[in-house]
Amino acid sequence: MTPTPTSSLFALSNRTILVTGGVRGLGLSIAVSLLESGADVVVFDLISPDHPDSVSDWTAAQATAAAHHAKLSWISLDVTDADAVASAVDAAFSSARPTHPVKGLFNSAGIQFLKPATEIAPSMWRKVVDINLTGSFLMSAAFARSFTGQGGSVVLVASMSGRVANKGLDCAAYNASKAGVVQLARNLAMEWGDKIRVNTLSPGYIRTALTDALLQQEPEYEKTWLDGSLLGRLSTVDEFRGPAIFLLSDASSFMTGADLVVDGGHTAV
Fold first, then answer.
1. Residue among 83, 82, 76 at smallest CA distance from 46
2. Which domains are assigned to the chain?
3. Global pTM value
């Protein structure tokens, strides 16, 4: 093998990366980092970039794309709709610049809700599993069908909650779905061998607008969360940029079927 210069290991130039759930939050933070690393990015989300809560961040992301001579686009998509997923992914592959073929997928679309297991309506259970787990499967399978080269990388966002029960939080549906995402990735990695690497990224608690709103309603949660963190704080969305770039780039070329846990040490003890 010809060694890749260390300075180029994390570069994502001359490729396109697909990102689900990328109009805001973690997905948008990763999309911006991909643009900064030289990739074109296609974002899939039901939320429009024109949404009042998203428009300013999306405008900033477009400015980042322009500054790095990259391309940022958005496709409206329900990740639980198999036909729509197949069409959207095919369109993304077809519209990619010849100099930037699609080589990666970062799947961060997901939902969470808190409810005791005895009170979860079957419809709500199915919705969580459909978006978090089935959506991950449909996007990954569509990517694999369209990808014809070598060296592809799929990153599915799981969670530390796929490994442990969250003390004080009633979220059985979410945790079960994320455990399923981890196992799904292992199986896809086995099936696709050296053609497409498949790994999961498992974040810990992330401070976002949604978690801030929850903590305002249930302030005792913050103490519980912080007690479980070896770093003594929650993460920010920016702290997952490095791990995501690592998994999508050649820096992780010998890594597949693995779960990268980035949780501030929550699951270490």
1. 76
2. 13-206+239-262 (3.40.50.720)
3. 0.95
